[in-house]
TrEMBL record:
Protein name per Swiss-Prot or TrEMBL: Uncharacterized protein LOC109485938
Gene of this entry: LOC109485938
Entry superkingdom: Eukaryota
Domain Kringle positions: 1-58, 350-422
Domain FZ, first and last residues per copy: 221-354
Membrane topology recorded in Swiss-Prot or TrEMBL: Single-pass membrane protein; Multi-pass membrane protein; Single-pass type I membrane protein
Domain CUB: 66-182
Length: 932
C-alpha cells in the first residue's frame, strides 16, 4: 500500500520520508532492515503490517528468481527466498522445455504454502500445466497449497509450466522441486487426426487452422492460407451458390484437390449422390458435402460445418442415406461455435432447413402468437444440447422435433415457432366460402401434418371434406374446399324444437295420451332356473301423436320422416317391471323418429334380466312363464292417475316386430319358447312361455334314479353272512343322496319340491328303513339257539311257500341220525322197529325170525350206505365245480339262516311294492299339497 496511506498507523516514519524517497507504494528500507519492505493490509483488511519485498541482491546470492526458463534435461528450482518466506503479491512462472522426444517428470522435496480457510487454495497456490501456458496448447496438472507435498507429476508433452501466485498478506517458506526428462513412445495418429510437426501429438483434422493452437509447437495453425476452389472441381460449389475460399487439409485430412478427387470418401458419396442431389430429405444435403471437402476459409482460419448442421442432416436423412455415409464425419467431432451454420450466402429470407436443428435465426414468436421465453432457465436443454446455440429467447430445435420451437411458459408449456421452411413446402391458406365456418386458427400457411376443419351455419349442411391435412409435398389432402347447402332437416329441427315454441316438459295435450306398442324378442341370452330369471334382448316400440311436431312435407323438400334427439321431445315415463338386474339404470337414450303427421316412435331396446314363474313339479317336464313388462308412468300409479294409456298396435308399422295378435317362436337352448304380447291399462308385456326339452335331464337325472332304485334290490340277494352286503347297500343309499343334490341344483330353492324329488326322498327313506331291517336279519341269521316250532311253521313253512321258496323245514337231527328205514341198531344187532321189544320185555325169539330180521337190517344198512355215497358224490361234484364255498349250503344251513332268506324275500317284496305304490300316491297328492 502507499506510504502516505500508512502514516496514520506509523507516525515515526514521517521524518524519514524525504531521505528514503518513500513514494507511492515502492519497496524501501527506511529502518535499515535485512532487505527492502513495504506495508500491506492484514487478513482483516483494517490493520496493516510490514512485509519484505521480493528483490534479489545485486551480488547474485542464493535467492531464486521469480520465473526462469529451463532447457536442461534435468534440474531443480525453488520459490523466491527459499527456504526463507516468499514475498507477497507475486506472480511467478517457471517454464521447462526439453527435446521433443522427451516428456518431463517433476517431484517436490519440500512444500509449504499458505492454505485456504475452506481447504481450497484461495490465497497462495502453485499451478502446473502440461504444455505452453497460457499462449499455447496446455492441460492443467493440478493446483496445490498448504503443507502437504504434491504427488509426482508426468507430462505428455515436452513443455512443463509451473505458476506460483501469492496474496498480499501472510506468506510461508515456499517450495523446492526437481525435474528429469523421460523418453516418450512414438506417436501414431488414427484416421481423422493430424500429426503435429513436432511429432509429439495428434489433433483432430477439424481443429486445424481454427485459430486456436492445439499442437504444442503451434504447427496446426501454420501455413494456413485461403484458396479458391479450383475450376476442375465441377461438383462444388452447387450451381445456385457463389464459390467460397477454402483451405486444406479438409475434414478428411486431404492435403490438396488431387487427394480429394482420388479419395475413397468422394467415391462413396457419388455412389449415393442421387439421395443428395434430389433432396429427398434435406435441401442442404449437397451443400454440407461440399463444405466437408472444401471447408470455408476466413482470415486464414478454417470454418468447419457446425455440429448442429451435421445433426440436422443426419437425423433428417437417416432413412434415405446409408449410415456409413452419414458417419464419414462424426457429428460429435465438429465444433458448436466458430463454425459454418450452413446458411445460404444468397438467402435473404428468414427460414429453416430440414427440421431446423441448425436454425440460428432470431424469431421469437410462435404460431399461436405467444412470445418465447428465455432459455437461461431451461437447465436440462442447456446441459444436454450445448451445441444447439440456445441463446436468449430465440426459436431453436435442440431435440430433433418436427420444426423449431420454444417455451412459452415457466411451467414447461411450449409451442412451434412461426417460421417458414426454406423449401417452401407449406400449404397456403385456401380461404373459406360463404356460410362455411372454419374451426381452426386462420394462418397464412400451414406445416405438413397440420389439419384444418370446417363447419356450416345453422340450417346448412357441409358438402365436401370436413377435415383436410397438409401433406409433405405442400398439398392439401383432400384438395377440395367444402361448401354449404341448405339442409331441410336442420331447418325443421330448428323450427319445431325452438324452445320458445316447444317445451319438452309439457304433455302433447291435456287429454289422455294414447300410446300404442309393438314388441320384439330378438334372442334369449340366458335362462336361470335357480332364481328363476331370464335374460333377453328385448325391444319395445312405443307410438304416440304430438300435434305440435307435425309439418307440411312440401315446405321442407318433401321430407316425411325425421329423427330427433330423444331429450328434445316429450316422452312418457317408462319403468321396467320384474327387473332382476340390480345394475339396470334404464333404457339407453336413442333418437326418436317423427312422421309428418306428428306421430312419434320411440324404441326401447336393451338386454334385460327379469324374473319368471316356474312350475317345477313335473321336472323335467316342467314349464316357465316369463313376462317382460314396461309400465307407463310411476311404478305404483294407474293409467287414470297418470293420464296415459297403453294399447296394442292393431297393425305392425315396423317390419319384423309383433303386436298382440301375433305369436313368435324363439330359440332358447334347452327350452321351447313361444312369445306373445299383451297390453292393458298402463303396462305392456312380452309373455315368454317356456317348455323344457326333457331329453337331457331324463338321461342325466331320472335314469340314474331308476337304476339306483333297482340296484337296491340286489342287496336282498346277497347272503347274510357276506361282508359286502351292508357296504353295498350304503353305497346305493349315498348315491341316491347325490342324485337328489343334482336335482335340487337345477331348480330354485323354494318350498315346492318336484315330483322326481319327492319320489327320490321316499326311496331314500325306504332304503334307510330296509337297511336297518337288513342289519337285524344279518344278526338273526347268526343265532344258534333252537327255533320254536311255531316260528318254523309260520315262517319256514307258510311264509316260505308264500314268497315261492317252498317248505324250508327239516327233520330233527335225532331222527336223521338213527332212523334207517325202520331199522335200529341194538347191542350191535340190526333189529327192525317192529321187532323191538318194549321196555321190560326180555329179548329172544326163534332162529328163523332172527335171520329174517338180520336180512331186513342189512337191506336198510345198504340203502343207507347208498344214500351216503350219493351225498358224498354230490359233495365232490360241488368241490370240483366251485371249490370249497360252492357246496350244498342248504344241507348245512341252520333254521335261522333259512329264516333270514325268507325275511330277505319279504323285504324285497315290500320295498318294490312300497316304491311302486308311492308313485301314484305322490302324483295325486303331491302337486300343490306337499310344501316344505
Amino acid at each position: 500500500m502507499e506510504w502516505q496511506s500508512a502514516l496514520p498507523f506509523d507516525t515515526s516514519i514521517e521524518s524519514a520520508i524525504r531521505p528514503y524517497n518513500l513514494e507511492k507504494n515502492y519497496c524501501r528500507n527506511p529502518y535499515n532492515s535485512d532487505r527492502p519492505w513495504c506495508y500491506v493490509l492484514k487478513d482483516t483488511f483494517v490493520d496493516v503490517t510490514s512485509k519484505f519485498c521480493n528483490i534479489s541482491t545485486c551480488e547474485g546470492d542464493h535467492l531464486f528468481n521469480c520465473g526462469v526458463k529451463y532447457t536442461n534435461t534435468s534440474g531443480w528450482f525453488a520459490s523466491p527466498g527459499f527456504p526463507q518466506a516468499y514475498g507477497i503479491a507475486m506472480q511467478c512462472k517457471w517454464e521447462i522445455t526439453v527435446a521433443q522426444t522427451y516428456m518431463i517428470e517433476i517431484s517436490f522435496t519440500d512444500f509449504d504454502l499458505q492454505p485456504g480457510s475452506d481447504g481450497g487454495c484461495l490465497y497462495d497456490k502453485v499451478e502446473m500445466f502440461d504444455g505452453d501456458w497460457p499462449d499455447g496448447s496446455f492441460t492443467s496438472l493440478g493446483v496445490f497449497c498448504g503443507s502437504a507435498t504434491p504427488p509426482t507429476k508426468r507430462t505428455r508433452s515436452y513443455i512443463l509450466t509451473v505458476k506460483m501466485s501469492t496474496d498480499y498478506v501472510n506468506n510461508s517458506r515456499g517450495f523446492n522441486a526437481s525435474y528429469v526428462s523421460l523418453t516418450r513412445e512414438p506417436v501414431g495418429c488414427a484416421e481423422g487426426t493430424w500429426l503435429c510437426a513436432d511429432r509429439a501429438s495428434c489433433v483432430l483434422v477439424n481443429l486445424l487452422c481454427d485459430g486456436n493452437p492445439d499442437c504444442w509447437d503451434r504447427s496446426d495453425e501454420q501455413n494456413c492460407e485461403c484458396h479458391q476452389i479450383p475450376k476442375e472441381v465441377i461438383f462444388c460449389p452447387p450451381s445456385n451458390m457463389q464459390p467460397w475460399p477454402t483451405i486444406f487439409p479438409n475434414l478428411y485430412n486431404h492435403q490438396n484437390v488431387t487427394e480429394v478427387l482420388q479419395s475413397r470418401q468422394l467415391r462413396q458419396i457419388f455412389d449415393d449422390a442421387s439421395a443428395l442431389t434430389k433432396y429427398p430429405c434435406h435441401l442442404q444435403g449437397w451443400f454440407y458435402t461440399c463444405y466437408s471437402f472444401f471447408p470455408v476459409c476466413s482470415a486464414r482460419r478454417r470454418v468447419p460445418p457446425c455440429r448442429s448442421w451435421c445433426i440436422e442432416i443426419r437425423d433428417r436423412c437417416q432413412e434415405d442415406i446409408s449410415a456409413e455415409l452419414l458417419e464419414l464425419v462424426p457429428c460429435n467431432d465438429l465444433p458448436s461455435e466458430n463454425c459454418w451454420e450452413g446458411t445460404d450466402l444468397t438467402e435473404a429470407k428468414e427460414c429453416y432447413y430440414g427440421s431446423g436443428q441448425n436454425y440460428r435465426g432470431s424469431i421469437t414468436d410462435t404460431v399461436k402468437g405467444k412470445p418465447c421465453i428465455g432459455w437461461e432457465s431451461r437447465t436440462y436443454e442447456l446441459d444436454k444440447y450445448p451445441w444447439a446455440n440456445l441463446e436468449q429467447n430465440y426459436c431453436r430445435n435442440p431435440d430433433g422435433a418436427e420444426r423449431p420451437w420454444c417455451y412459452v411458459g415457466e411451467d414447461g408449456e411450449w409451442d412451434y415457432c412461426n417460421i417458414e421452411p426454406c423449401s417452401g413446402r407449406v400449404c397456403p391458406d385456401r380461404g373459406v366460402p360463404r356460410r362455411v365456418i372454419p374451426l381452426h386458427q386462420a394462418k397464412a400457411y400451414y406445416w405438413p401434418g397440420e389439419k384444418v376443419s370446417y363447419s356450416c351455419e345453422d340450417g346448412f349442411t357441409l358438402v365436401g371434406p370436413a377435415i383436410s391435412e397438409c401433406q409433405r409435398d405442400a398439398k392439401w389432402d383432400p384438395e377440395e374446399v367444402p361448401t354449404c347447402i341448405v339442409d331441410e332437416r336442420t331447418l325443421l329441427l330448428g323450427e319445431k324444437l325452438n324452445r320458445t315454441l316447444y317445451n319438452p316438459n309439457l304433455r302433447p295435450n291435456s287429454d289422455k295420451v294414447i300410446i300404442t306398442v309393438e314388441g320384439l324378442v330378438s334372442s334369449i341370452v340366458n335362462v336361470d332356473e335357480t332364481i328363476p330369471s331370464i335374460t333377453t334382448d328385448t325391444s319395445f316400440y312405443l307410438h304416440w301423436n304430438d300435434p305440435r311436431l307435425d309439418w307440411e312435407p312440401s315446405s321442407y323438400g318433401d321430407l316425411q320422416r325425421i329423427e330427433f334427439p330423444a331429450n328434445n321431445v316429450w316422452r312418457p315415463s317408462i319403468q321396467l317391471l320384474r327387473n332382476a338386474n340390480p345394475d339396470f339404470r334404464g333404457f339407453p337414450d336413442v333418437n326418436v323418429a317423427i312422421k309428418e303427421d306428428g306421430e312419434i316412435t320411440w324404441t326401447l331396446e336393451n338386454l334385460v334380466v327379469t324374473t319368471c314363474d316356474l312350475n317345477q313339479y313335473f321336472f323335467p317336464f316342467d314349464n316357465m312363464t316369463c313376462p317382460v313388462c314396461v309400465h307407463v308412468g310411476g311404478k305404483f300409479t294407474s293409467g287414470d292417475e297418470q293420464g296415459d294409456e297403453i294399447r296394442c298396435r292393431e297393425e305392425n308399422s315396423t317390419e319384423g316386430v309383433m303386436n298382440c295378435s301375433v305369436s313368435q317362436a324363439v330359440q332358447g337352448g334347452e327350452w321351447v319358447v313361444l312369445v306373445n304380447m299383451e297390453a292393458r291399462d298402463n303396462q305392456a308385456c312380452l309373455m315368454l312361455h317356456l317348455r323344457r326339452k326333457p331329453t337331457y335331464h331324463l338321461c342325466t337325472t331320472v335314469t340314474p334314479f331308476i337304476v339306483l332304485s333297482l340296484l337296491m334290490c340286489v342287496t336282498f340277494f346277497i347272503p347274510p353272512d357276506s361282508g359286502d352286503r351292508l357296504g353295498y347297500g350304503m353305497t346305493i343309499l349315498l348315491s341316491m343322496f347325490v342324485n337328489l343334490v343334482v336335482i335340487t341344483d337345477f331348480l330354485p330353492r323354494s318350498g315346492n319340491i318336484p315330483f322326481i324329488g319327492i319320489v327320490n326322498i321316499v326311496a331314500i327313506v325306504m332304503m334307510s328303513f330296509f337297511m336297518l331291517v337288513t342289519t337285524w336279519v344279518v344278526r338273526l341269521s347268526r343265532r344258534e339257539t333252537e327255533m320254536s316250532q311255531c316260528t318254523k311253521v309260520f315262517f319256514l313253512a307258510g311264509c316260505a311257500r308264500l314268497v315261492l321258496l317252498g317248505d324250508m323245514r327239516r327233520a330233527s337231527e335225532e331222527d336223521k341220525s338213527s332212523n334207517m328205514d325202520g331199522v335200529t341198531l341194538i347191542n350191535s344187532r340190526v333189529v327192525p322197529e317192529s321187532d323191538r321189544l318194549d321196555d321190560g320185555e326180555a329179548p329172544g325169539g326163534s332162529p328163523e325170525a332172527d335171520v329174517v330180521t338180520v336180512l331186513k337190517g342189512l337191506q336198510a344198512v345198504m340203502k343207507s350206505n347208498q344214500q351216503s355215497l350219493e351225498a358224498l358224490r354230490e359233495s365232490l361234484e360241488g368241490w370240483k365245480k366251485g371249490g370249497p364255498g360252492s357246496d350244498d349250503r342248504e344241507a348245512g344251513e341252520s333254521d335261522w339262516e333259512r329264516l333270514a332268506h325268507v325275511l330277505d324275500r319279504l323285504c324285497l317284496i315290500f320295498y318294490l311294492g312300497g316304491l311302486i305304490a308311492s308313485v301314484p300316491i305322490i302324483f295325486y297328492y303331491g302337486n300343490g299339497r306337499i310344501v316344505i
